[in-house]
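re the bet — no i am not wrong, look at it urself. input seq straight from the record:
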Amino acid sequence: MRTFIAVDLSKEIRGKLKELQHQFMHLDVDQSRLKLKFVNPWQAHQTLKFMGEVPEDKIEAIKGELSVIKQEPFEIALSGVGYFPKASPEKVRNIRVVWVGITKGVEELKALQDDVESRLSTLGFPMEKRFSAHVTICRVKTFSHAGSRGEIVRMVDKIMELKDVEVGAVQVEELKLKRSTLTPKGAIYDDMYVKKLE
């Protein structure tokens, strides 16, 4: 089964992310040149580790490693819209991901992610080289780089307009092991294990 470890966001934060997505949904973008695929805002989260396909008999061992993680609850704040790959606005040739940044609690998130990495490496999962604190709100598929320039400029203009937007803060009190089930309408996430931070 496809699995990952994440921190969930509050209902209020997810509502704000949905409002931001609406601003991109109403952009004058030719879908034949640039296709925007929006993440379900009610499932938005900060991934700490994506493990991909994991045999069912390994799930209990993962739960066991997560159960001994020790970290106190902490607050994260989300603000500012950005994009990957990184480039200055006037030099953007392609956008693959539109995201909202995490501007507070990044050190605590990184410490939590380091702990998760260290625990799961004992089970044979490879360590991630880097960690990026952000929440994806949209993925972009470009069909024609030459013909999509106008659409990309419109997207960059909207992102620059929202680069300082305040989204809100949430208390991180749980770490979750989730299963991802792929369907024609998008992925569905189920909690398989919840570790309380205390």
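see?? The mean pLDDT is 92. told u. also The longest strand covers residues 74-84. so pay up
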